[in-house]
Write a structure and sequence with these properties.
Keywords: Isomerase, Rotamase. This is Trigger factor C-terminal domain-containing protein. InterPro entries: PPIase_dom_sf, Trigger_fac_C, Trigger_fac_C_sf, Trigger_fact/SurA_dom_sf. Residues 76-138 form the Trigger factor C-terminal domain. One of its GO terms (molecular function) is peptidyl-prolyl cis-trans isomerase activity. By secondary structure, the chain is mainly alpha-helical. The protein folds into 3 domains: 1-59, no CATH class; 65-110; 114-142. It contains 4 helices and 2 strands, in the order αββααα. It has helices at residues 11-17, 65-70, 76-110, 117-141, and strands spanning 25-31, 45-51. The protein has a two-stranded antiparallel ribbon. It is flat. The two termini are 59 Å apart. The relative contact order is 0.06.
């Protein structure tokens, strides 16, 4: 299914479909933009063989009390209030997460943890052993 005016194809593709009737075929020549993410296709012209199987008209429902009732709300005002409340909750949750992240980053950046020298020495020794082992493996492979 393709929606005329969608951004998945260049505008020239949509324009080429205008006026087609169900069952009609058409060859559409379309030049992809030079900014196309797939470098092999960027700036090149392609011919699309199109068969229009079915034509549908998008119907946008009226924004009224019946629409609200279809969404399990008492009326349009109640639906608007519910949506507004959900957006507010979402905003508050996002802000809370952002603040927690900021606090953690500040705590990490401001902390001054002293690592015991014995721990550093132990890690250095482990790393030296790992490197020696890798060198020996490389010699054995040669």
């Amino acid at each position: 299914m393709f929606k005329i005016g969608s951004s998945t194809f260049p505008a020239s593709f949509s324009q080429g479909l205008v006026g087609l009737k169900a069952g009609e075929e058409k060859d559409l020549k379309v030049r992809l933009p030079s900014s196309h993410p797939q470098k092999d296709f960027a700036g090149k012209e392609f011919t699309f063989k199109v068969l229009l199987k079915e034509l549908r008209k998008e119907e946008v429902p009226l924004l009224d009390n019946q629409f609200a009732k279809n969404l399990k709300s008492d009326d349009l005002e109640a639906l608007k209030k519910h949506i507004q409340d959900e957006l507010q909750k979402s905003k508050e949750n996002w802000e809370e997460k952002r603040l927690k992240k900021e606090i953690i980053e500040k705590a990490v950046n401001d902390s001054k943890v002293k690592v015991p020298p014995s721990l550093i020495e132990k890690r250095v020794e482990e790393r030296i052993k790992e490197l020696k082992s890798k060198i020996e493996e490389q010699r054995a492979d040669s």
